Amino acid sequence: MIPRYSRPEMVAIWSPETKFRIWYEIEAHACDAQANLGVIPKENAEAVWKAKDVTFDIDRIDEIERETKHDVIAFLTHLAEHVGSDEARFVHQGMTSSDVLDTCFNVQLVRASDILIKDLEGLLAALKKRAYEHKDTVRIGRSHGIHAEPTTMGLTFARFYAEMDRNLSRMRDARAEIATGAISGAVGTFANIDPAVEEHVCDQMGLVPEPISTQVIPRDRHAAFFATLGVIASSIENVAIEIRHMQRTEVLEAAEFFSMGQKGSSAMPHKKNPVLTENLTGLARLVRMAVIPAMENVALWHERDISHSSVERNIGPDTTITLDFALHRLTGVIDKLLVYPQNMLDNMNKFPGLVMSQRVLLALTQAGVSREDAYRLVQRNAMKVWDHRTDFREELLADEEVRAALSEEEINEKFDLGYHTKHVDTIFERVFGDPT
Amino acid sequence: MIPRYSRPEMVAIWSPETKFRIWYEIEAHACDAQANLGVIPKENAEAVWKAKDVTFDIDRIDEIERETKHDVIAFLTHLAEHVGSDEARFVHQGMTSSDVLDTCFNVQLVRASDILIKDLEGLLAALKKRAYEHKDTVRIGRSHGIHAEPTTMGLTFARFYAEMDRNLSRMRDARAEIATGAISGAVGTFANIDPAVEEHVCDQMGLVPEPISTQVIPRDRHAAFFATLGVIASSIENVAIEIRHMQRTEVLEAAEFFSMGQKGSSAMPHKKNPVLTENLTGLARLVRMAVIPAMENVALWHERDISHSSVERNIGPDTTITLDFALHRLTGVIDKLLVYPQNMLDNMNKFPGLVMSQRVLLALTQAGVSREDAYRLVQRNAMKVWDHRTDFREELLADEEVRAALSEEEINEKFDLGYHTKHVDTIFERVFGDPT
Amino acid sequence: MIPRYSRPEMVAIWSPETKFRIWYEIEAHACDAQANLGVIPKENAEAVWKAKDVTFDIDRIDEIERETKHDVIAFLTHLAEHVGSDEARFVHQGMTSSDVLDTCFNVQLVRASDILIKDLEGLLAALKKRAYEHKDTVRIGRSHGIHAEPTTMGLTFARFYAEMDRNLSRMRDARAEIATGAISGAVGTFANIDPAVEEHVCDQMGLVPEPISTQVIPRDRHAAFFATLGVIASSIENVAIEIRHMQRTEVLEAAEFFSMGQKGSSAMPHKKNPVLTENLTGLARLVRMAVIPAMENVALWHERDISHSSVERNIGPDTTITLDFALHRLTGVIDKLLVYPQNMLDNMNKFPGLVMSQRVLLALTQAGVSREDAYRLVQRNAMKVWDHRTDFREELLADEEVRAALSEEEINEKFDLGYHTKHVDTIFERVFGDPT
Amino acid sequence: MIPRYSRPEMVAIWSPETKFRIWYEIEAHACDAQANLGVIPKENAEAVWKAKDVTFDIDRIDEIERETKHDVIAFLTHLAEHVGSDEARFVHQGMTSSDVLDTCFNVQLVRASDILIKDLEGLLAALKKRAYEHKDTVRIGRSHGIHAEPTTMGLTFARFYAEMDRNLSRMRDARAEIATGAISGAVGTFANIDPAVEEHVCDQMGLVPEPISTQVIPRDRHAAFFATLGVIASSIENVAIEIRHMQRTEVLEAAEFFSMGQKGSSAMPHKKNPVLTENLTGLARLVRMAVIPAMENVALWHERDISHSSVERNIGPDTTITLDFALHRLTGVIDKLLVYPQNMLDNMNKFPGLVMSQRVLLALTQAGVSREDAYRLVQRNAMKVWDHRTDFREELLADEEVRAALSEEEINEKFDLGYHTKHVDTIFERVFGDPT
């Protein structure tokens, strides 16, 4: 994660300030619960809230950590400097560092998820708008990069919509995966702290208690979470590649918006490059690369070790910040994408009529020609069009073997574009619940 | 995937025989639907079912493919050899190869999922049985590999149960992700085939229609599927590592069952090695390594390309076969795991009483000592135990500063094991819904 | 690895027959060395060679392994069935299974490397031939998929040559990484076997002794080996992507050879798809996915564990077989690639003259215009060509501000293609050591 | 990368200040070369050096980039603000942004490599010192985590030394991989810039010219570079895991140095955790996760795209900073590692004499017992020791079948520790070139 690819709202979630604030809230809520249980005096619990409006001094905490080599102890020592050493002496009682660290990490991931969910909703809105706008904009469908049969630009946006809608659903599941907290004490037995404390803290922090936590919250949850981010990133790459292809000089069916004053190349003033979607291709790799370490983090030794910690300190912020940025960037690209319908038609007719070959094949079969013969007849005429850019319809009309099966009218009828778009409404209804 | 790590039921799903059988069913059901729509003659649809009991000749299909370089065409040509070239001429009408290939692949993944779900259920049963069996078997909990505080072996099994239960739920979601089919024709527009055909075929094959398929079923589904397998594999590694640790010579709290006639080492006859769980550690890596390629597969060019195909031909069988084998192997390991309760007690007392340090710390704090002083007092006595293996309780009793805060009786009371296991029932209720 | 993507010579290296043959040779050579040292009787060493021409019975070995659950012991038991139980009793003396397994694995990797080196040499020859053939075939260079400036097809082949030549060098280094053997006994101390045995066996098997082996050959070597295969696979993808782009319908500057009888699509007879290079894209992912598990294999517990074993049983054959197949396939693609020089010229002139924008920019600067103004002037005219497909040269000639700096002759001179190819010989000399 | 796991010298290489400084030097040296060729006026080349001592204003450059959306153009505009717009008008002539960016990136990687090489040399020195210190410190060798046969702590350090020495050699190769520069202009044809400029700039920047660069320096080089960092990180994990195992409470053969004032746990004052090596385990994953994206970066479209750029902006600094930190941390751990020889002996004797089983096996075979019978005899007595912790030597002496083959003296002689360490000098000579 670097500032270049970051947005402030997500960055703020991962600041030391936010982290210590969450630690503080966890500790303070825990004190309340302990006081309610009669484990610690009420006045000590109340005293902790004296620090409610304090902005903790990060340099001071770092200074203490350099001595203790333990971040939670450093924070607690600093907290006591605010609350009073005597009043603070029941803070953290019965808890272990993981109770604070793991619960805090999940709070941060939940907040990050909320932003990502909003990002996806914004992207869906942009895709839907463009889908309806170009529902009937015909262009050639391609398989293997080769012209296949006509489709519409609206269907392209619609398939991205459907894919991102699945991602929204996956993201909500991923949020649920990590919306748990644990205040279960050393090795997770609740020996030194009543389960009621966990319930209260989780309730206050918007989490549910982890059913069994053995000191750490189990990392299969986080593996599933980061895997979901990896899937979403891969979908971003999918959309990005389509746009990069469309913007190629030879294709030019769409282009990223190019602002006034923008320069495409330091050397070649004629250039307009799809730099945003190329960038998204790379960002997708960055999000994806966290998936395997997150899975390697699952196997901790016994009740816990901290091999996962340095990994999560990095991939927690890095992936959520990068994915947030990427989703936002993609939404802008979709929103402002320049679409060139005339170029779409021109491209489709590069080899005139060729893309209708299947219809002719089917018509021949329907007319009684065997599938093998029909294939041979169509391929024979198609190859002429490939080689000499003649008109496929005219080649067919001139082929006696074809004409033995199909009349001129029957052949001509096969070159109607409407044939290919007749089910667009059906598909839109499936995707958006509404055909028009 | 190699025979050594394979079970026949899962291997059968991926055999050429099964694949061609599924292709056949898709084509035959599609003909039925086409005939119902009046697109092709009923007798041609019926004729296809003549091959219902045929075992297709794989060598013959391979031979045809060597000429056509196209596997679906090779199969259709061979099918016509059974059905009759004339009767077969409407087979595959309006469809494209992807309709057959993608729908077949998902049928195979659904069947594989069903086996994996059964595997997970079996593993859960074994874990539950062992959890209740050792609910009260006390052993030392460890963090960082270092003795922390007492816990029970039952809690260890229970946490694996909870983790695998989450995996069961993830696996069911993953099954739903890929339980879709597509019969939408070239570039997915239904230009040449009515959506009703797709509905009929999916219904017959146990799938739901893919809302928008653009020739291929979108690969974000498969990325999510394989990512789930990767998470499950990581959980297997998590359990395996715990057992490997328990079987270490110095720990020896549990061991894989060692059968008569088994040889641990060709050179050292005294060895009993945790070879099954070491093996599972490696198998987990094999399943996990498919996650990134599955994500790289998401970004296809335009409506489709086939860069994903060679990847899936490998990881489809490899990951499901390996994971099935691993789950089954792990179930056996859990089921027959030798547990040594006496060794657990012996290990816990290696540094006598030391694992109770936190209780003493809390007691000192409760008695009015500041947290910092209490920590210092406890650490001072703990270090003596580390260095000289003396008894922690006796050190405390002999420490005047400690005794100024705590009486002999109060100190003695802190060394009661029951204190640490008092919430085991609570946790079992959370995990299994039943405390006993 | 599946038969579809395998070649027999590489597959043979990984057959059980080959493996047992190598095990046999290691054991027999070790006996010779032991006899020379006087540790075992000469006649027993000689007796082992009685099995020299035996093809070992794999089913029988498997049967024994099912009882002993130890593959090396199973083999030794079977070997004794050939050699005679009494004569065989010194076989494997002082050795441990890893001595056989690890040394054998490295022998297999060395042999696989030799094939891969030959593959790379074949690919280099094909690339060189095509590079010289198209040294002067002008086509547009593209950055970001957008037309940039002219280059030649020969330079494209030359850059692939240079990249694959680096890969050849890396492959030779990788071969050296794993060309070590170890016969050091349990935990690698040579307690039970003299280092002279290791020297003799390694010498006979074409290896060098591992300096310090602690029972296993250290896996950082294998990590480096598989990482190298991953780099080579990525280069294959690089070439494949270029060809896939060139074959796009809109570009069509090159195409994979399309044989008689081949069918591009079951539905659309007009299709010629770049299926081989798409396939190579997927195969690259398969090779690459082994890199991380190979790195995870490095950290073994203490002197050894066998978590790496199941991984290597798979990735050893899978990656070498797949990479061999891919290199061979790519060589065929390059060798027979259809190149369309006329289409290259047509594409370059899609926006007439536009690709010369930099030269005009430089000329304006040389003529005293500030860099910023020059950029603005050129971009202004370039945008007209983008928007209306007019001729860039004519636009410039008509732009008074441009003409204030450059004469008609000076402008015309900037549109000479030879300007862009004047250093092709220099580059060829750098790459091939020979300009022509 | 986060400050917590960073060292300033490496961080400085990746600062914007350093980057712009390198850009400046590349541009200034290029101007010199251009002036020598007579392409631009000498006074303009000299004028550029006016900015020699300028610290570039990063905020200003960012401000310009926000308008131009092009970082190199933004820098050049700012440079002109220092040098004078007129004097600066030949800066960057004939060059493209990639010439600056790619050459700069490689300069940074080379400098990073130099630090990493120094780190490895420091680690090797520490390992060597500890190896000789504990050359004869006997401890049990373990395979599968199970006691095998005696070895020495010095051999453990020696094998890490040998592995890191290979890594040093790999790191030097990796440095050579990326020590190339390119000043070849748009699409790399040198159309607008003479190859002599490239030679001069590379020479001044400590690089060699890339033989063929097609605008970008080919990314197979970087893939190989980052793969090497991944291998080194995996070796760090290998060492870290060994130390974590040794520090386990039950093993306690070594421990990380624990400073005064350090706190192992916020809850349990008795804890001393191997937190540094656990941390290294996680850092290894972070370095390793960059390998696959670096390989995905190899396949750029045509002459170039910038999908690799966002990846490299992250993994360039992240991996080198993390690896530098990890190597430095590991060196400290090794240097100060507490080693407990007495615990090593105690552990070895946990099952008295058992670890000598192989010698007895060999002795029985030498005495004429068949291998199978010998194995059975030894295993029979070993199992008694496992089950009842009796003394293996005494069990053997009491076993009549054993005694039929071996005398009491012969049996006793097999329990001599010196037998296992007799080749330590040989191995040290192999590793260090010097036995003592």
What do these coordinates show?
- The structure is a homotetramer of 436-residue chains.
- The first copy, chain A, contains 20 helices and 6 strands.
- In chain A, α8 (195-205) links the parallel β3 and β4.
- In chain A, α4 packs across α5, α9 (220-247) runs parallel beside α12 and α10 packs antiparallel against α12 (307-336).
- Chain A is elongated.
- Chain A is mainly alpha-helical and 436 residues long.
- Chain A folds into 3 domains: 1-93, Fumarase/aspartase (N-terminal domain) (Fumarase C, Chain B, domain 1), CATH 1.10.275.10; 97-345, Fumarase C, Chain A, domain 2 (Up-down Bundle), CATH 1.20.200; 354-414, Ribonucleotide Reductase Protein R1, domain 1 (Orthogonal Bundle).
- In chain A, strands 1-2 form a two-stranded antiparallel sheet. Chain A has a two-stranded parallel sheet with strand order 3-4.
- Chains in contact: A-B, A-C, A-D, B-C, B-D, C-D.
- The interface between C and D is large, with 95 and 93 residues.
Short description:
Chain A has 3 domains: 93 residues, Fumarase/aspartase (N-terminal domain) (Fumarase C, Chain B, domain 1, Orthogonal Bundle), CATH 1.10.275; 249 residues, Fumarase C, Chain A, domain 2; 61 residues, Fumarase/aspartase (C-terminal domain) (Ribonucleotide Reductase Protein R1, domain 1), CATH 1.10.40. Chain A has 436 residues and is mainly alpha-helical. Chain A has a two-stranded antiparallel ribbon with strand order 1-2. In chain A, strands 3-4 form a two-stranded parallel ribbon. A two-stranded antiparallel sheet of chain A has the order 5-6.
